Amino acid sequence: MPALTLSDYLQKILTARVYDVAQETPLDPAPVLSARLDNTVLLKREDHQPVFSFKLRGAYNHMVQLSAEQLAQGVICASAGNHAQGVALSAQRLGCTAVIVMPVTTPQVKVDAVRALGAEIVLHGDSYSDAAERAGELQAEHGYAYVHPFDDPDVIAGQGTIAMEVLRQHQAPIDAIFVAVGGGGLVSGIAAYLKAVRPEIRVVGVQAADSDAMAQSVATGERVELSDVGLFSDGTAVRQVGVETFRLARDLVDEFVLVDTDEVCAAMKDVFQDTRAVLEPAGALGVAGIKRYVADHGTSGETYVAIACGANLNFDRLRFVAERAEEREAVFAVTIPEELGSFRRFADLVGARSVTEFNYRISDTEDAHVFVGISTADRQEGAALAAELTAAGFATLDLTHDELAKEHVRHMVGGRSALAVDERLYRFLFPERPGALGRFLASLHPDWNISLFHYRNQGADYGRVLVGLQVPPGDDDALREFLDALGYPYEDETANPVYRLFLR
To answer: pLDDT of 464-485, one tens digit each?
Structure first.
């Protein structure tokens, strides 16, 4: 069978049957992000679909064209979740059974949503590719009709209706559309329509740096199979792209942008600030791609569209997202001399910058090793601050891009210390404003030593701070005066059994 031409795809997209189940989604401005980037950013809100993802379009467009005999036999698919919901809802609408093979790593919110639509679920493997292999085996055993999540012309055409809507909704110039890429169905459909009717619009595929099968394939000129894929952006965790999607992406996609986990989390935060919507990681790839593109190319005054392609996120993952969303956070390991006034000198160097994290436990009589996060305007400011700290005599190790430090070590600073003599433990609420730490340090009695300090900005109006102070027994009255004059709410945790068990 000859390969479909651009004209063939244009006709298939124009005649696609998606609106029996899908809806035309809004194209919303992102004013805060636009102002910050000095470019107009528009969000195509596919998170508004009944299954909170664009996948419904392609799944239904394929299934509605199956014969009555095929529908009676039932359908099967492999999916990380969003395609599964599209197939399940389409099967419900068309009155057929559906078997969905999902990776065991699929977020529970997606599993529950598919089950609620009446589909049979089989959990298998760690990635889409593992699930697809099992789905192929079950198809052969039972004769199901296979609904591919991306490598099928009807699925691709269904996704292409998104581009048709964008051009109808925004008839003014568009410089580029940024599209999340996993297996390639979405970017292929959008690129096919745009290059047929508005070829001047750039199509930029955006991939997670640890799941970049399409970018690698296009770069090498043949389909590459990754040995493993990152699972944070589970909706795009594909080890090998499709045959047809590779052909289309190679010919039609103008360029690819790779983003890391921190950039995706920051993009999720950006969308929330503009829309109060919480996208899943794959859904925010387009926004992360715009930010990376602007940073790399230095553009201004242009108009960009990001496909906000999904919002099926486990609520529990928000803890991780919030932790990693502050892309303008510089993280350092700083060595400070164990002498009175050294912490105050360090605080003076930090100045009015917001401290996002501060972890310290006394462990050496000569030097204090501090894990600290500081909010910066950009990556260059972080490097400049590291140089400034080093010049002031504080040996500084930049950990901003160290995954071990950010994932694990930041939570493990501390433990028991034989040097923590006469230690009192207090839990404070600090106001979240620059200078709160400096005021605390300036108020300390010159003979008292900080033996423990833990703080992490949680985005609230008050920061929760744990402080160990070495206060001689005879200074009880002075300690009470200090606490009262400070004016920060506090609790004495010195008798807490958890403290006694793990830190004392």
So the answer is: 788 899 999 889 999 998 888 8
CB 205 within 8 A of CB 214: yes
Q: Which of 199, 175, 192 is nearest to 58 (CA)?
A: 192
* DSSP conformation letters of 439-481: HHHHHS-TT-EEEEEEEE--SSSEEEEEEEEE--GGGHHHHHH
Phi-psi domain of 485 (left: phi exceeds 0; alpha: psi -120 through 50; beta: other): alpha
Intra-chain end-to-end CA distance of the chain, in Å: 74
Alpha-carbon distance of 185 to 203, in angstroms, equals: 14
C-alpha 38, offset from chain centre:
23
In the sheet with 120-123, reading across from the earlier edge strand, the strands are: 120-123, 98-102, 75-78, 145-146
| Residue 496 belongs to domain spanning | 328-502
Alpha-carbon distance of 410 to 391, in angstroms, equals 25
pLDDT tens readout for residues 42-59: 999 999 999 999 999 999
Residue 1 in any domain: the answer is no
Q: pTM (2 decimals)?
A: 0.78
What CATH number does residue 202 fall under? 3.40.50.1100
In 3D space, the residue among 41, 170, 275 whose CA is nearest the CA of residue 162 turns out to be 170
Q: Is the CA virtual torsion 171, 176, 182, 184 positive or negative?
A: positive
Look at residues 240, 190, 170, 152 and name the one whose alpha carbon lies nearest to residue 54.
Answer: 190
pLDDT > 90 in the chain, percent:
59
* 345 shares its domain with 438: yes
162 contacts 18 by C-beta, under 8 angstroms: no
| Residues 123 and 180 reside in one and the same domain | no
Helix, coil or strand: residue 456:
strand
Q: Which residues, 6 or more positions from 190, have their beta carbon under 8 angstroms from its beta carbon?
A: 159, 160, 162, 163, 177, 179, 203, 307
Q: Are residues 347 and 475 in the same domain?
A: yes
